[in-house]
Fold this sequence. Notes:
Blueprint (H helix, E strand, L loop, with lengths): L1 E10 L4 E3 H5 L6 H8 L3 E3 L6 H16 L8 E5 L10 H9 L5 E5 L5 H15 L4 E9 L9 H4 L4 E11 L7 E4 L7 E2 L6 H10 L9 E2 L1 H23 L8 E4 L4 H10 L11 H4 L6 H11 L8 E8 L3 E8 L1
Parallel strand pairs: 4-5, 4-6, 11-12
Antiparallel strand pairs: 1-7, 2-3, 6-7, 8-13, 9-10, 12-13
Helix pairs in contact: 3-4, 8-9
Pfam families: ACP_syn_III (PF08545), ACP_syn_III_C (PF08541)
Main location: cytoplasm
Pathway: Lipid metabolism; fatty acid biosynthesis
Amino acid sequence: MIGKICGTGSYIPPKILSNDDLSEMVETNDEWIRERTGVRNRHIAEHETASFMAAEAAKRALENSGVSPEEIDLILVASSSPDVIFPSVACEVQKEIQAVNAAGYDMQAACTGFVFAYQSAQAYIAAGFYKTILAIGTETLSSMVDWSDRGTCILFGDGAGAAVIRAAEGTAYLPAAHSDGCRGDALVCRSRFSSEFVEAFKKTGETPKDTYISMDGRGVFQFAVKSVPQIVTEVLDKAGLGTEDIDWFILHQANKRIVESVAKRLKTDIGKFPMNLQEYGNTSSASIPILLDEMNRDGRLEKGQKIVIAGFGAGLSWGASILEW
Length: 325
């Protein structure tokens, strides 16, 4: 048995922060941001928490799938910005959607989080442990952004996406996943629960800068444009497929230039690489399921299509899977 996505859902906070809005906060402008990132707007959570958005996305995914909450066996939530340490966001979602028969836990792999959650779901289903799994990516990255740092504040947004994955007959494709902790300093956000944070806050009364997202932009870009084509090629080779066999390459929505570079290195038409980052920015673990939901609902995803999903980000971590719609 394999796991097939049978429903998707997403939640996007209604508040929009445009490039023009940002130009009033830091020294930047719309043209500069769009040229370097492709981002035009990002949505910002006001009162919404990661748990709330995850639950809303889950409800919409269940409605789309026709699966009842009671049928869910496991809830996997990927998030780097949870509003609770414990209980887990997964348990908060379970409570909200009344998935009374489900176990649940959170996983943290930054922008690769949803891909790793999807791969975990596939493994659980293949092993016969569970039949119906809810995988969610949810982020309130705006709470981790230094709004005075134009190198990072222009990039990130908030939102959640979810997919219902159910046991079915089909072709099993082996995934690929990698991590490299030796390069972890390229993208960092320190905990605000550490003793170092407490001591620093006592001394200055201000949140230490290293507890906001800091990034070596050039280093992350170079990592992404090299590692993503490699891992996409890896999963294709495992499956005995070529790029011509794939209908869509759904990448983590980090940066337009990264997506374009990956398409170029794979010698594949950019039209096979859908993007919505222009409206939402980088929503980390939520970006792939949000895009999947958009494409599902607007009819771009059709039964039998082959799709590659690929995530990459802090850790450093990167992963890819092939799925059939």
